[in-house]
Amino acid sequence: MRRFFMAAALAALSCSSAFAQPKVDYSKLEIKTTDLGLGVYLLNWRGGDSLILVGDEGVLLVDTSVAPMGDKIKAAVARISSKPIRIVINTHAHADHFGANELMAKGGAMIVAHDKLRERMAQGQYLAAFNQTIPPSPPAALPTVTFADAMTLHFAGETVQLFHPPNAHTDNDTLVHFKRANVIHASGTIGGDGGYPFFDMSSGGSLLGTIASEEKMLSLADAKTRIVADEGNPASSEDLKASRDALVMIRTRVQKLIDDGKTEDEAVAAKPTKDLDARWVHGAFLTGDAITRLAYQSLKGAKPPAAR
Ligand SMILES: [Zn+2]
């Protein structure tokens, strides 16, 4: 019951507040475009933010947003490049990241994603974390190229490295590293707008996997790297390091409460995140109590992420 209550509370928040809120008027949402340099642009809307890489041979698009935003994404791309969208990468199987896949595929794009993302799209999903049922996607929307651990694309003079961090934000995440432009899409494994990251256990996510994903991104990053979350301005490598440190502290403190035999409610009452919340809680999104519950549940049921 407690778990269900928390899931309902999170439904209004999610990794992307836009798709979890049933009455969003997408016709009113505008896409803000930011030039990150060397052909890479960030497309902000209100969750599930996209990246594009443009070059003479066309456009590579990371995440297609929800279906009603597809035409706006295309229009935003067209304002930057007259070339067609040739390649789409879906970072994970939350609906604000693959919703307009079919539109892009019909325009000739090849869709690339993790093996498990294709499975989840093909079979349909119930995401308990959002109390959301996603029906099976039509075949035309499915990725046609999938990978298990890592893949490298060479496009528009850029080296685009794809890495799968196991059981992180979900069980089907792809970190997208634009090496030359020094930009990483975090696939929801760093919090949007500088908040705590959310790990969706109903989609196979976990606290330990999210920490491992942040470690992986730190291994790729230098002082100038921009790390793209689902929402807001890109994070710096300093922000990423601080997020990793906060998650490690939460892991250590909540694990101690578990080892001491505390119940979930007792762990929450102990306020193990109280010195962290001023930086990492923004509004109602993932409060200290909520991240403590998530951490408790994840660590109780945790299996270490599979070796990469
Ligand atoms: Zn997500």
Précis, in short:
The protein has 308 residues and is of the alpha/beta class. 34% of the residues lie in helices and 20% in strands. The protein has helices at residues 2-11, 17-20, 70-80, 95-98, 101-106, 115-123, 207-220, 237-259, 264-269, 277-280, 288-300; strands at 32-37, 40-44, 50-55, 58-62, 85-89, 110-114, 125-127, 132-134, 145-147, 150-155, 158-163, 175-178, 183-185, 226-228.
Bound molecules: zinc ion
List the helices and strands in order.
HHEEEEHEHHEHEEEEEEEHEHHHH
Find the count of extended strands (DSSP E, 2+ residues).
14
**Mean model confidence by pLDDT:** 91
Indicate the CATH architecture.
4-Layer Sandwich
CATH superfamily: Ribonuclease Z/Hydroxyacylglutathione hydrolase-like
Indicate the low-confidence ranges by residue numbers.
1-14, 16-20
| Count of separate DSSP helical elements | 11
Report how far the terminal alpha carbons are from each other: 35 Å
Shape type: globular
Q: How much helical structure, as a percent, in the residues?
A: 25-40%
Alpha carbon gyration radius: 18 Å
Strand arrangement across the biggest beta sheet: 1-2-3-4-5-6-9
Structural class determined from secondary elements: alpha/beta
- Tell me the major beta sheet: 7 strands, mixed
Any idea how many domains? Answer: 1
What is the CATH C-level name?
Alpha Beta
Strand content: 15-25%
